Structures are given as structure tokens and as C-alpha cells.
Amino acid sequence: MSGSLLRLACTAAVAAQAVLAPVPAAAAPEPRRSVAELLTDLQRLYRQTEQAAEKYNATTEQLERQRAEVHRLDGELAHARLALQGSRTDVGRLARQQYQNSGGLGPYVRLLLAPDPQAALDEGHVIGELARARARTVARLADTEKRKDTLARAARKALDTQLVLAGRQKKQRDDVRTELAGVERLLATLTPEQLTAVARLERQGVAEAQQRLTTAGSLPADRPASPVGARAVRYAMEQVGKPYEWGAAGPDAYDCSGLTSQAWSQAGTPIPRTSQEQWDRLKRVPLPQLRPGDLVVYFPDATHVALYVGNGRVVQAPRPGERVTVSPLASYPVLGAVRPDDQAPATEAR
Q1: What is the value of pTM for the model shown?
Q2: Are 321 and 244 in contact (CB under 8 A)?
Q3: CB atoms within 10 A of CB 339
Q4: Bridging pattern class, strands 295-298 and 283-285
Q5: Has residue 179 got a pLDDT over 70?
Q6: What per-residue confidence (pLDDT) applies to 17?
Q7: What Å distances lie between residue 286 and 294, 331, 350, CA to CA?
Q8: What phi, psi does 327 have (nearest 5°)?
Q9: What is the C-alpha separation between 305 and 57, in angstroms, rounded?
Q10: What's the pLDDT tens digit per position in 220-249?
């Protein structure tokens, strides 16, 4: 926790005084919780907020892809309808021609009565070609009808999916706001002394976790970044000081995976948007083999991510109320690491 947490706490306290009903004088005071309990509660709430935010991010990505698919299908359907109109015009023309020629002699009678049988045979060949052309026109009409119907069904289904995703996104947005409200309510109950003690305890826990990684030999040795990794690090470091905002991917604010995905995109190597997709789809590397630019993923369900910058430190967008900052690698419980610029299949790091 940091000075920015204190600022968030002050804001939350003012908001709470404005909206919370006063406690009756006869109400019994709540039992005083220890600093460790307060820290545990805050960390749980922050983690729940980030879990909800990452779900929101994933759905937002799906919704954007679905909107593009609906747009593509609508375009194809419009072209199919124009083609169908053209095919129907051609078939109508053929029908009129067939009706106008229906009173004439048939091809076999014309052949028998022709003064020049070879000329009649040549004419019959032309007639056969015309018949085949008519058959192709009719077949094209049938195919266009079928394609139009198929595209119409696909477009309706795609639009239904888009509406489902939009509803899910709204619910997940509401979930994030609910979790953030829980953080603010807890912060509003804390005194400045409690906030200072909680921040001190958290820093102590991070230092101990970092020391355990050092003792276990899990911290990486100094390694050079790849050229694209160096560009990703440079971009991420230029964002230091910008605020955390859930769902944001720059340029003015970021959430955790918004920062890492934008850093690599700006470096010329687009990667998945969410921390869970980054963990699932990028190549995993053991911590001792980390090089600057690799991503460190946190928590068992991969709901937080940071970008390794070297010397046992990461740059990250930590959580609501904080700003993009450089932190010890062990700021949160480490799940593992992935390397965006190595496209080998993902494997479990041992």
C-alpha cells in the first residue's frame, strides 16, 4: 500500500460520510480488527475487483470481435441480396424469351424441313448452348437464394450473440463497481494510523516474499532483452505515474493487462488483452530464465500481470487508487511467467 492508498482512503471517507446513514448512538461498536486482518480483507477485495475487471476485459474483447463479425455478415448479406436481384432479373428475361418463342417450330422439325441440314445442325448447337446457359442462370439463382438464406441465418445468430455479450458486459461492469464500492467502504472505516500500519505490513510481506525468491534461486540473473522486448520495456516505463483504471488500455490510464498488452503492441508484437489469455496463450518460461520484457503472472487464476524490467523488478498497474509503478517482482503471489516474443507452443514451466 502507498500514499496513493491514503489519498483513496480520504476520498472514500468523504464519500462515505455523504451517503452512509449515521450509526445509532446505542449501536455496539464493531470488534477492533488487527492490522493483519485489515490487510487480508483489503487484499481480498482488491483481488476480487481485479478478477471482475479481467472478466469484463475478456467480454469486451469478445464483443468487439462479434461486432466486427456482425458487420462482415451484414456486408455479405447485402451483396448476396444484390446478386439475387440480378439473378432474378436474368431468369425473368429467360422466361419472357421462352414464352415469346413457344409458338415456333421445335428444333427437330426445323432440322427435317431445313434445306441445308448442316446449317440446321449448327443452329441446333447454338440452341443447345443457349439452353445450357439458361440452365446455368437458373442454377445460379438457386445457389444465390440458398446463400442469401444461409447468410441471413448467420447474421441473425451473430446479432443474438452480440446482444448476449453486451448483457454480460453490463453485468460484469456492475460487478466491478460493486467490488470497488466494497474497497471504498472498508477504507472509509480506517484511521490514518491504521492505514499507515497496513501499508507498512504489506511492504514487509513483499520484502519477505522477494527474499524467499532470492534464497530459492528463483530470481532471474541479469539477461539482455530481445530488441522487441526492449521496446516493450521502454514503452511501459514511459507510462510510470499514470493512474490505474479498470478496463483501460492507455494512453492516459491502464489496468494491469492493459499496460502489458499495449506495451507489446507498441513494440510491434500484439498479444492477448487479458492476463488469463496471456498466461494461456504465450510461451511459459521459468522465473530464473526471465529477461526484460517477459510477463510475470500472479495469483492461481492468473488475474494480475506485470512486465519484467530486470534486476528483480517489474513495472505494473497495481490496482485501483494506485499509479503505474516499478515494484519488486514478488509484489503479489507469483503464478509464473510468459514470453511474448517466442511463439513456440505454451508449455508448463518447471
Answers
A1: 0.69
A2: yes
A3: 21
A4: unpaired
A5: yes
A6: 35
A7: 11, 18, 6
A8: -135, 165
A9: 14
A10: 888 899 999 999 999 999 999 999 999 999
List the one residue out of 292, 275, 274, 295 whose CA is nearest residue 284: 295
Q: What b/e sequence results for 306-319 when a residue is b if at least 16 CB atoms lie within 10 Å of its CB, and e otherwise?
A: bbbbbebbbbbbbb
Angle, CA 238 vertex, CA 237 and CA 242 arms, to 5°: 100
Q: What is the pLDDT of residue 142?
A: 72
Residues 6+ apart with CB under 8 A from 242: 250, 252, 253, 254, 317, 323, 324
Q: Letter for the amino acid at 264?
A: W
Asked if residue 192 lies in contact with residue 76, where contact means CB atoms within 8 angstroms, the answer is: no
How far apart are the C-alpha atoms of 300 and 183, rounded to whole Å?
Answer: 21
What domains sit in the chain, N to C, each tagged with a CATH number?
A: 1-19+31-216 (1.10.287), 218-339 (3.90.1720.10)
Q: Residue 111, exposed/middle/buried by CB under 10 A (0-12, 13-18, 19+)? A: middle
d(Cα 232, Cα 38) in Å, to the nearest integer? 36
pLDDT digits (tens, 9 = 90+) for 45-100: 888 888 888 989 989 988 888 899 889 988 888 888 887 777 667 656 666 655 55
Rounded distance, CA 145 to CA 260, Å?
47
Cβ pair 340, 295 in contact under 8 A: yes
**DSSP letters spanning 267-291:** TT----SSHHHHHHHSEEE-GGG--
d(CA 276, CA 295): 12
Tracing cell 413457344 back to the chain, one arrives at: 102
Write down the residue that cell numbers 463497481 correspond to. Answer: 177
Is-contact 183 1, C-beta < 8 A? no
Q: Which three cell numbers stand for residue 345?
A: 507452443
